[in-house]
Amino acid sequence: MLDHDTERPACGPASGHTDGAGGTTLITDLPYGPKAAEVAREAVAVALHGAEETLLDDARLITSELATNAFASGSPPLVLCVDRANPTTGSLEVEITVTDGGCSQRASSSPQAPGEEAESGRGLVIVEALADAWSLTTGTCGTRAWCRLTREVRTSTASA
């Protein structure tokens, strides 16, 4: 089993809940096929409805990469979990987890940038560049890719 972790212990996705502090969790199955990334992007857009466009763009791109990796390297089932919380006034924290049924290939301990002409292989490099923290745990019984995005929430200064 490989665990590449930049801040979070290797554990399963958060349990589904909605709490009174403005936190929400979306958990959904993804199709095991080429549509996994598209469905994942749409689910993230629902979970982050009303979030700033830059956060939404980063979250959709990351989720697309994680879902694509899960389909390309893993086995069914694919599951997406998106946790959204406001831990402090003025900030938004998003945790994205994609799990799959496991893979037979051992993953690299750190993302390697592919050659300039390569058509794939940039997924984890993108995740590492955009996320504030991330981890990848692989094994034959399951694979878990997790990341956190934390952004300051901008207040509108426009008057009505």
Observed structural traits:
6 strands, disordered N terminus, Heat Shock Protein 90, single chain, 6-stranded antiparallel beta sheet
Structure overview:
The structure is a single chain. The chain is of the alpha+beta class. It has a single domain (about 1-10, about 15-150), classed as Heat Shock Protein 90. The protein has helices at about 35-45, 55-75, 125-130, and strands spanning about 1-5, 25-30, 80-85, 90-100, 135-140, 145-150. It has a six-stranded antiparallel sheet with strand order 1-5-6-4-3-2, covered by helices on one side. A hairpin with a 5-residue loop joins strand 3 and strand 4. Helix 1 packs antiparallel against helix 2 and helix 2 (about 55-75) runs antiparallel to helix 3 (about 125-130). The protein is globular, with a radius of gyration of 16 Å. The N and C termini lie far apart (about 55 Å). Keywords: Kinase, Serine/threonine-protein kinase, Transferase. This is Diguanylate cyclase. Pfam families: HATPase_c_2 (PF13581).
